[in-house]
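Can't attach files on this board, so I'm pasting raw text. These are the components:
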Amino acid sequence: MEITIDWYIALSAILFSLGALGVLLRRNAIIVFMSIEMMLNAANLAFVAFSRHLGDLDGQVLVFFVITVAAAEVAVGLALIVTIFRSKKSINIDEINLMKG
Amino acid sequence: MGSGPVIILFILMALVSITAAVMMLRSHNAVHSALWLVLNFTAIAVLYVLLNAPFIAMVQITVYAGAIMVLFLFVIMLLGAEQLQAMTGVEGNERYHRAVAIVLVVLLVGGFGYLVTLGGIGSGGETAVIDASPVALGLRLFEGYVLPFEVTGVLLLAAIIGVAVFTRRKKKEA
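---
Top answer:
Structure tokens for the assembled complex are below.
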């Protein structure tokens, strides 16, 4: 028996689903944000698995870029959360409804 | 390494990462969630090593499990947000969200099942192991992706400036 790419893609899908579940079910903005990181990570795992499968380094280069963008995104997102917390004294995403139509 | 240890390591790391992900979603303390996420990232870093991507594994540990999660922990502790409500929410909303989540999971698992049974993504078997050392990766990065790399620098600069502007208190407020 050999570990094929299927296994990695399955794991990636499971982790992505768990991340999506977290975004939909949790109300704490920081946890929601961590779930988004987990989804990005699942995508990275799929990239590296395909890179290995196809024998092409481009997948790993793309993961490098994804990680860079994720770092920038985390910094901006956490700054947003801090700013929202300062003005609303809460990071419950159900209470952040200023833009609700 | 033969295929036996690799399979054992893969299953172990898959279990660790899935367990850590579930515990991250379930724990009521945001600090615990962050630590579970670090475990998840570390397990995935081991999988990167198995996938012949040592540089990405190292970046995963230093940048993701290190820098990004420390930033998370800083913000959690700064806001004192570790005990803020966990699963509570508006009741009707909750049911709706749960339904959407279940539909998404079914779609994803179904799509994957289709790919494996009919599409056959894994049917090609293992290809030759390529040179994925940091040197090779760096050469590929700077030979084919110089412009995206420069754009990344601009993006990071924009993020830094944005964050500085965001979190600056106005004079009268302070």
